[in-house]
Task: structure prediction
Amino acid sequence: MKHVGIVFANTENADAMDYLKKSLENIFEEYVQFTLYYTELFQEDTILHEDAYLMEHEVPFEYLRHHVSDYTAIFALERSFPKGSLERILAIPENTNVLVVNDGTNSSKELVSTLSYLNVGHINMTALDYPLRNTHAYDDFSVAITTGAPQYVPKHIKDVIDVGIRQISFSTVYTLMRFLDLDVNVINRNLFRHIKTLVEPDTSYHDNYIFSYLKGEMLDHIANSGPYAMLLVDSRCRPVYANKKALSLLHAAETRYINILDFVPKQLLEGSETTSAIVSVNGVNYHCDKYTFSIMDETIGYFILFQDENELELYSRQNVQKGYVARHQFRDIIHQSQVMDDLISKISKIAPTDFTVLLSGESGTGKELMAQSIHNGSFRNKEPFVAINCAALPENLLESELFGYEPGAFTGAREKGKVGLFEQANHGTIFLDEIGDISPKLQSQLLRVIQEKQIMRLGGDRLMDIDVRLITATNKDLAEAVRKGEFRQDLFFRLNVLAFHLPPLRSRRDDIPLLLEHFMGSAYRSLSGEERRILLSYDWPGNIREIENVTAYYDALCSLPDYIYQNSYAMHSVRPAKAATSDHLEKILLKLIEANTSLSHGIGRTAMLHFLQENEIAVSDSRLRRILSDLEQRGLLEIGKGRGGTMITEEGRNYLQRLL
Result:
């Protein structure tokens, strides 16, 4: 139980103080014990030891802070009008001079401010100054407004509008609830009931609270209907949310009692990548997946899933047998170009979300590889990954594959019917490749699936709920297809939630050598210098798939296909090039490297060779290596490892300036 002190200046309005205390007790029930304190009774050495303090307006903060154990736990006791209380005030004739009376000077001023915020502007309000209440200062006033303190109204004023004791404001209750970490259902329920009794100037505050509560209830329902134990912690590993399965698994009555480091090793939580591990909880092994949430590259929390290892192995074997698995992850994407680094960084951040993803790009750019990586980077990674090429099947067959059918639905249908791919992918991911090729009829059906999260088998008469993440891909310009009337606009906007374009190889030539070496293996070293120049300068319209085909051809026949040699760009790139002196080449390279040096990245050797070839400067790879090594030894360059590239030093910049 928490302990809260309600601090007043004196005991003069005991009824109001007792009323406020009972109101708070009705909201917080057995979770909080409230105690009334009066500063007029404090001794010089009085120190209060409570979990929090509510201070009314007549109590000076600077005085109270010296009489409590923790002054950061002091909060203002704000109050609101009860519903229906303003009607009598609004009925006062316009421009009437009205004395506003509460149980102190400061609280009377606060009451004037509250009435002003409530748009009571048709009368002239003056707050009672207590030292003047028994003088003639208010002889000209014939009307007074008070909130449960009529005894303080000057005796000559007969027209007294007493709207009753004001309620505790929503902001006070909500702030106290959050500070005490008492976000529990019974208090939320009582707070809802309390909100309905108030009139406040700004309802957006508690409207936002209600909206957040409703969204939380919806997400709680979803989280508790799934097969996982789910836990959310902040960056300091403090628990934020746990579903019922997690509370049961970790033997905790409430989320706040969980210490995640008792169950999950700290090294699993460190770093920004999605990681997995086997952890033992009460003698049972669980597969534990961690997902990192970040804002502006700063970690703000972790989402953790637990699943029984035995159940997971059985379920995984079933998916493998059906072929419904994603075998690739982001680390499997072979690249060294900056454009792919940036793209993978963005997509890996949205992988843990559940939003629909649209991947566009030319044929062979690796859209399915990226889709599998997204699935494996999400909390659905232990569930099925079902992929289908929409362009590979005729309309009627694609429809039955996607939605399934009942027995006897059409001629040739299986006697037992068939489960569709959407059902097979339930709780997992479905990847629809070449989505731009589906018929208008299927477009309409797919739109309904996305909107309603329901499907109906062919020949069926009942709707089935499904829970799938949708990833789609296309090599077409869907926006242009919408303009031409070939693709539904409403479906396009449903699919185009998180859209990413995979660039073709000709836009990221730094990746070509890595891909060639990956597919060719040791045979890559057998390529002649001329063959490498041809392959690096070729446009690769078939992208990665074409590279794989060309390397298979080379592996079988020890030569490149004729069309590669005949390509006009390649022929242009290998025509006799101009020789260059060492000094001239140094100058060209230093200028090129300086132009491509950033704080953390330089330029790769492959890009340098390509630049020199485009400018018809003949340099072999071995000669370029020697020149770069010499420049590095002279302190003019720094040759980074891996994808860091080569960067110019400050000494190199000065040397280049002298050359120019």
Q: What stands out?
A: The longest helix spans residues 204-225.
